[in-house]
Design goal:
Layout (H helix, E strand, L loop, with lengths): L1 E2 L10 E6 L2 E6 L5 E4 L6 E9 L3 H8 L13 E6 L6 E10 L10 E8 L1 H13 L3 E2 L4 H8 L5 H12 L3 H12 L1 H25 L13 H27 L1 E6 L6 H9 L17 E7 L2 E7 L10 H16 L2 E7 L15 E5 L18 E3 L8 H17 L11 H22 L4 H19 L3 E2 H8 L7
């Protein structure tokens, strides 16, 4: 089922009552969520967040020296104590938000405590004992989307800002949170909807009805929209290393020493190493920070065309796909000459010659013009640091290629939806050039609009939302 808005149903209500006795929280079964909304570990300040009808009542029950809420959205100092035992919890700042003025759009409270993990856990437990339930990952932001405070592009920007490992990723998250990319996606959807309306008008009416549609201009307009979407895709591809990490693929024939080199780069045994050819059947990835740049190093199956079984052939195809999509490609060559050439014809950024410890003389290998060659040995460590240094240089270059000023979509999910939308528009262009029926053209445009709706959340399934927000941290 497709949803335009999300309904977070509640099975009860909570009211806050003021009077001579102070504040009473009349609690039924309410949907108040609570979580620590600051980072793990010790810090000067930690935040416990509550959201949902009844948040004020729960928070006030913890405030030992306060019987009425402070002015909304004003910081107020309060002693926090466990309402059941009277045990002192903290001397903290509090902020109360009415429905419509909080991050989630709901009645909310934020408690700014001293940042010790044990202390924060105690305050959170007191909130849970008072009637709140533990928030699920990303649930605060999901409620903000449901309330129309954020769209899905902005919601995913929140997660990106929390995990950004590069300046470019941080800038991309801030740009998305500002709403500029959302406006661009909305403009593209409107343009495609206008095209769809014209095509359907031509289907449903004739000139005798007084409806005239310039079908000759449809192809020009389609090309313009395809160019717009293609520009977004190219910008996203260039920005990917900064957002998701730089992908480094080790490629070469079986027994060239890829897995040994992979383990040596990581500094530990991660991949299985064996003399039998075809030991690596799939792509194995591991994160490796290089000069502050997050990199995912990929060990791939040995490349060969003949003699591979069905399973190994699938591994070889995955290796070629990894090399095609990688930001940095390292061709691995057996320095002893025992492993045959793989005939790899893709882009190569570095050549790593392996097994130098088995060669009486330093091996010499021809490489593409301008491509550095590093002689290495996984056994004695020769050349490993130089290879790491060159990889760090290439990774930094890949990150610098990203242009956040042009970026509209970031992340695998958004790029996937964009790619699908672009494919539909390109199919419509081909159909129009080939005089395909207008019904086919309308179908392509309708699917393109739906895929763009998946980007900003104007058209998306509950299952996809569950997957997106499950990757958020608990307090977001």
């Amino acid at each position: 089922m497709h949803l335009r808005a999300l309904d977070f149903s509640r099975s009860g209500t909570s009211v806050w009552i003021g009077g001579a006795d102070g504040i009473l929280a009349a609690m039924g079964t309410v949907d108040v969520i609570a979580a620590v909304a600051s980072g793990a570990g010790s810090a000067a300040i930690g935040v416990v967040r509550l959201s949902g009808p009844g948040s004020w009542g729960i928070a006030l029950s913890l405030c030992r020296d306060r019987s009425t809420p402070p002015p909304e959205r004003h910081l107020a100092l309060a002693w926090l104590a466990d309402p059941r035992t009277g045990r002192l919890l903290d001397h903290a700042m509090t902020a109360f938000f009415a429905a419509g003025s909080s991050y989630t759009g709901e009645e909310s409270v934020e408690l700014y405590c001293h940042g010790g993990p044990v202390l924060l856990d105690r305050v959170l437990q007191a909130c849970l004992d008072g009637g709140a339930r533990a928030a699920r990952p990303g649930e605060f932001t999901r409620r903000a989307v449901a309330a129309g405070r954020l769209d899905l592009l902005q919601a995913e920007a929140v997660a990106l800002l929390a995990s950004a490992g590069t300046e470019a990723a941080l800038d991309a998250g801030l740009s998305a949170l500002s709403g500029r990319p959302s406006a661009e996606v909305a403009a593209a959807r409107e343009a495609l909807l206008d095209l769809l309306a014209d095509v359907e008008a031509a289907l449903d009416h004739s000139e005798e009805d007084g409806v005239v549609v310039d079908l000759g201009a449809v192809g020009i307009r389609l090309a313009r929209e395809a160019g717009r979407l293609r520009g977004w895709w190219e910008a996203a591809r260039a920005l990917r290393p900064a957002v998701s990490g730089v992908q480094v693929a080790l490629v070469g024939p079986p027994n060239a020493g890829k897995s040994s080199l992979f383990n040596a780069l990581l500094g530990r045994d991660r991949a299985i190493v064996h003399a039998d050819a075809g030991t690596t059947r799939d792509v194995v990835g591991e994160m490796l920070p290089l000069a502050g740049v997050p990199c995912q190093v990929l060990d791939t199956a040995g490349l060969r065309d003949a003699g591979a079984g069905e399973v190994e052939a699938e591994g070889v195809q995955r290796a070629r796909d990894a090399a095609r999509d990688a930001d940095v490609v390292v061709q691995v060559v057996d320095g002893t000459g025992a492993a045959p050439s793989d005939g790899f014809a893709g882009r190569v950024d570095l050549v790593a010659v392996t097994k130098a410890d088995l060669c009486p003389l330093e091996p010499r290998v021809e490489a593409p013009l301008g491509v550095p060659v590093v002689v290495t040995s996984a056994r004695d460590g020769r050349g490993i640091e130089r290879l790491r240094s060159l990889l760090a240089d290439r990774a930094s270059e890949a990150v610098r290629r990203g242009d956040t000023s042009r970026a509209v979509v970031v992340g695998e999910r958004q790029v996937g939806a964009l790619h699908a939308a672009l494919g539909c528009v390109e199919a419509a262009i081909e159909g129009r050039a080939g005089d395909a029926p207008l019904e086919v053209l309308a179908s392509d445009l309708r699917r393109a609009v739906e895929h763009l709706g998946e980007i900003d959340g104007s058209r998306i399934t509950e299952e996809v939302l569950d997957r997106i927000f499950s990757r958020f941290c608990m307090g977001k």
